[in-house]
Amino acid sequence: MEVENNEWQVVVFFLGGQEFAISVDKTREILRWPGSRPIPESHPAMTGITSVRGEVMPLVDLRTYFGITPKVDLESSKVIIAEFNESKLGFVVDAVERIYGISPEELDSTLTNAVLGKSILYVIKRKDVNVLIPDYEAIIQSAAPAFDTTMSVDTARVAELAAPLGDLGRYRILVAEDSPLIRTQITDVLTAGGFVGITQVADGKEAWERLAMKGERFDLLITDVEMPRLDGITLVKQIRDHQELKRMPIIIYSSIMAQDVRLKISGAGADAHVTKPELPRMVEKVCRLLADSRQKQPALK
Question: Is the Cβ–Cβ distance between 144 and 43 less than 8 Å?
Fold first, then answer.
């Protein structure tokens, strides 16, 4: 089972003297400083709210979030307008460099967590320069929690939906997600609902390799879209083309829901797609898809 190559397009920007990057798929536009109005009792990195062509959105200063001294004043800063879960917010940065195409071989995750902290997912190794890719979902949940929809799950409702499934211990769920925070949230909410057979992997390639293991079995896949080495859409297509795996229920769980991405998801063959961080809806989809699969395969063990 071979894995297709996966290239990312990223916007590289500066915070102080350090280069960072954000996916082009998350980026909507780059603006000069638009001004802002403060938000009482907000996170220190929450600069305030602004209005862009009549659309009100929060502004998060990434320099403050990472404790980096700015090299320009606020009025000379740039704002990257990004879209998550069909809503927009602005990331305040020193300057924007350009768009780069990067290959999976340039991504290094070995220094994250212990060395670079939980807010950094990858280091892009480009010649003599290291470019950092943050975990933007983690930043948003920390600095702009009101921006996210509720993530609380009604366990009684989960129990009601899971009732037709019988013993939840029999089901094995594979979660492919490069954000440790999101992986943990998915696992925690499924565990709270009574599911115990949950396997986490950090990207699509690792998910594909687990699916290919002899004697391995999974009843459902939850996958992000944007991941290194193998993206979620390509992963879904490869599963649907595989004789033994093609009927496995698949949920795409992603914060990137722009129209072009929606079209790609629709064409890939996933059974459902849910926007982050709508965990209650995701759990509901898990229960319904497993119930449908069980009806089609009554001998499921």
Answer: yes
